[in-house]
Backbone:
């Protein structure tokens, strides 16, 4: 399935949640939604991010969907808090 974001919306593939910390399994009820992901698609009016950018979202921003077992979020560009850049200097 291929989903294209429209207008000022951005499709973000969310990073997987950590289900285990230090060998302890964490039930789904206690997992918080990951707020970091990678931009997969942008609408025609999006100006600040591009496909492939790593971004930070507000908690509970946008609409969460599952596509082929992967978690995505469709957000309005204004719900993106920032772009994450690797500091490989």
Residues:
């Amino acid at each position: 399935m291929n989903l294209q974001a429209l207008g000022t919306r951005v499709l973000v593939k969310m990073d997987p949640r950590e289900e285990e910390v230090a060998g302890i399994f964490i039930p789904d009820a206690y997992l918080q939604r990951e707020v970091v992901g990678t931009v997969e698609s942008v609408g025609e009016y999006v100006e600040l991010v591009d496909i492939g950018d790593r971004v930070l979202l507000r908690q509970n921003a946008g609409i969460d969907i599952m596509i082929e077992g992967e978690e995505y979020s469709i957000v309005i560009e204004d719900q993106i808090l920032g772009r994450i850049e690797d500091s490989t200097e």
